[in-house]
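Me: I keep going back and forth on a fold encoding question. No explanation is needed for now; the record alone will do.

Assistant:
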Amino acid sequence: MTSAPKLRIATTSLAGCFGCHTSFLDIDERLLDLVEVVEFDRSPFTDIKHCGPCDIGIIEGGVCNAENVHVLREFRDNCKVLVAIGACAINGGLPAERNHLDLQDILIEVYQTGPSLDAEHAQIPNDPELPLLLDKVRPIREVVQVDYFLDGCPPSGDAIWKFLTDLLAGKTPSLPYPLRHFD
């Protein structure tokens, strides 16, 4: 008897704190149950750098630079289902707090006029290896189509587990109120 092929899941983090991936690890020993039915593609769990064809893509973080746009579009192209997880992916979160400020003013403050900087030698980084910053941090839905949203900052391990098990069972994910929080 052959077993059913495992579903492929990819995860990545864009502009954010990586807290949603930390919460993913908070599913604890249930992670062993998960690997019985899924295989991880691009993810910090595998260190694969590019997303291959996947059933589910999970993305945390907002979109703040050209590299984020590239990674996000690659995910959307390679994942049948795309899940925005956490406040940063859904609405820009804390990184979007810079949206009401002028980007040039921010760069000057951080790199040229901060109190601990050597003003004589301070300069804004301008290396072609650095990704181009966008004028505003955007939620991922402004760049690609998103199939599901898992809110929270970050969502708890229990919320992630419930969401994933619903999705893997072919059900529309539904979280009871106690699993939803924004602290």
User: Anything to note?
Assistant: Residues 7-98+133-179 form a domain with the Rossmann fold fold (CATH 3.40.50.700). The chain has a mean pLDDT of 90. The chain is about 30% helix and 20% strand. The first strand starts at residue 7 and ends at 13.
